[in-house]
């Protein structure tokens, strides 16, 4: 049995006081407790950024590799052991900047992997450059005159890109976020959970207050997540920021369709490699 305390490594999080990363961490732990699976069945892959520091704070199997590259690591893990619940914890820079090509391709493959993105619209760890989700006009250390580019819309990209579960949460509503994470993990196929995560140190525009003034819950407006066109309209809605499940469909998972590649971990490897070793002497 796991409880939220048993998921703490003993290293206290060094995120800034008030950072949205704290409640995302708490929501992930609460969802694991509610899912009630053996802890060794979970495998977490972390991106590089403030969000990725979670690898040090959580007591579970985890891996932190290169900036922008957690998704291919997760795909390899899932192919090796299909019984694992594979979860990727990433950031807006990590997933939608450096890792954008992996993001687009994992969706059309429909791996059974859950991607949770700490979307703070800034590069937190590298002290405040504009990220791919930063709004046009955003003033930052890298854009002192204001950002010229328009932001990436990850929800619209995911719906168009073939993701079979597309949701958005808010770090200021951990109970709602916990349910979304559980739904994403229970979904058979690729799940995106983009999470609005205020960075209280380097983003003075997209604050808790700013989000609260714009957010509404899709489930309270009678949204039907089976309707792809309606989901896209919600994703493109100007001024308002819906949270909840935008889109959900059932489709075959990638790893189910690779008959030549059985789950490696479940198959005992009994190949005699003594001849190979001999040849290398
Ligand atoms: C290949 C590579 N490029 C750039 C960096 C520098 N770098 C480290 S974290 C980071 C940005 C992280 O931003 P985000 O993914 O939004 O995470 P946050 O810190 O906001 O949680 C960058 C550019 C790096 N470590 N590796
Ligand atoms: S810099 Fe921003 S994202 Fe990083 S820990 Fe501090 S508040 Fe959180
Ligand atoms: Mg970020």
Low-confidence stretches are none
| Largest pleated sheet | 8 strands, mixed
Helix content: 25-40%
Strand order of the largest sheet: 2-1-3-4-8-7-10-9
| The CATH architecture | 3-Layer(aba) Sandwich
Structural class: alpha/beta
Ligands, ions, cofactors: thiamine diphosphate, iron/sulfur cluster, magnesium ion
- Cα(first) to Cα(last) distance is 48 Å
> Into which percentage range does the β-strand content fall?
15-25%
What is the overall silhouette? globular
Number of strands: 10
CATH class: Alpha Beta
Mean pLDDT, all residues: 95
Question: From the alpha-carbon coordinates, what is the Rg to the nearest angstrom?
Answer: 19 Å
Query: Helical region count?
Result: 10
Q: The CATH topology, please?
A: Rossmann fold
Lay out the secondary structure.
Layout: H1 21-35, E1 42-46, H2 54-57, E2 61-64, H3 70-80, E3 85-91, H4 92-98, H5 100-109, E4 113-119, E5 122-123, E6 129-130, H6 154-161, E7 165-170, H7 174-186, E8 191-196, H8 208-214, E9 215-217, H9 228-235, E10 241-248, H10 274-279
Parallel strand pairs: 1-2, 1-3, 3-4, 4-8, 7-8, 9-10
Antiparallel strand pairs: 5-6, 7-10
Helix pairs in contact: 1-7, 4-5, 6-9
The chain binds thiamine diphosphate, iron/sulfur cluster and magnesium ion (MG).
